[in-house]
Write a structure and sequence with these properties.
- It is a single chain.
- This protein is of the alpha+beta class.
- The chain contains eight helices and five strands, in the order ββαβαααααββαα.
Amino acid sequence: LFSGLAHADLNFGTAQEDESNDKYKVGVDYDLVKPEIENSNEVGEINVINFFSYGCVACVDTTAKMEEWKVKMPYYAKMNNSPVSPTLASSYPARIYFTLEKLNRLDLNLPFLEESASGKTDFSKFDIVTSWFDGRGIKVDDFKKGFDSDEVLGKVYNAPNVIKKYHIQSIPLIVIAGKYQINAEEISNHKEDLKDVVSFLVEKARAKENLSSHGAQ
């Protein structure tokens, strides 16, 4: 239930950009999202998405690093975690995340991810899930109500569409402004400087958007 997607390269394409002086190279340190996906945030805001799933061991370190980056990210960046759910049948982990989101308890996202990935607790049993959160300030009845709410179910039903929209084939995966992506292998190759790569791509995306904005005037 918590196995996540296969750890494999993503095939988003590597169309060339002028990057001769860039510290990080397309096709080596990151790839281009082809076709690009609209940056859905407010104008001037750079959207960063960390795709993950509970039970994904590799997602633990990536999510922890992204939470650290979030604290110091520039004002024009916005970072969100997004659970993957390829099918409704495999939506259980994503449904737990959306419940935490609804209850405004995303502070428990990383601890639960760490616990689920450790394999020490059988979270396939719902009563164990509710008991775990009950011990951390979420009453069982509140969790159940959130879990069964129309808001959460709506996001669960839409989750497979997110997989298709971003062409997700592996996790962890970081997508910046719908333009750049750092796949699982590239993340693994940047264990020490992942936050620097993300910052680099945020600035690159911002410069590109500013250029497009000025060109449209």
